[in-house]
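anyone seen this seq b4? input:
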Amino acid sequence: MSWISGVGLHTGALVRCRLHPEPVGHGVVFRTSAGAVPARWQYVADTARCVRLAQGAAQVATVEHLLAAVAVLGAWDLTVELEGPELPILDGSAQEWAQALSTAGAPGSRRYLVLKQPVWCNQGRSWVIAVPAQEFSVAATIQFEHPAVGTQVWAGSDLKVVLDARTFGFTWEYEKLRQQGLANGASLSNVLVFDDVSPLTPPRGADEPVRHKALDLVGDLALLGGLPRANLTAICSSHRLDWQLVQAIARVT
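predicted toks r here
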């Protein structure tokens, strides 16, 4: 497998990685110069605008888009050889990761967890809820006081349709994120950016923002090592809230 290169969304660093399919049961593991980090919820170190994993001195950030592609394609056994502090953001979606997994020949298989009872978490007006079901589905809702976004809803079980949905943001929050050490690699080539009125580049459908929220949720749930047999409802969710739901699901599966 050839190297996948690009800029890190938050660090702005030039990074690269290679994908190595592994035997069944291996799971997804990130291999860095400082050691290995399993892509499991127990290793989550931070959830501020992305998911960062750490084990000892080894750490890797912005793993959610690759993990979403892993979950959608069923490529659950993989070593990700990484040079840099975070995965490259590529075009801001999971579409290129899905293509890379297919090129690498990563075998696909369904891997489900049995959810024994409903679980939910909330922070103010934000909620994430998982209810036992025969299969996995998502219903995501976002709400922004912006004329080009507003309230959006996406629901479905065909997760391939969320793969091309990019990270989105607003011009007014950019400087604040930079002051927090985030979004140093953000650009119009990897983020769907909205000014006060409209997107600065053409969106991939009017519902691209909410589809990206669904994508992030799937990537965060992949930290369980499989998707739960559940109907998921996410209302104005975040990586932090998703992680709380992942922990709650882990306790009842």
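The chain has two domains: 4-104, 112-251. Residues 112-251 form a domain with the lpxc deacetylase, domain 1 fold (CATH 3.30.1700.10). kinda curious what u guys think
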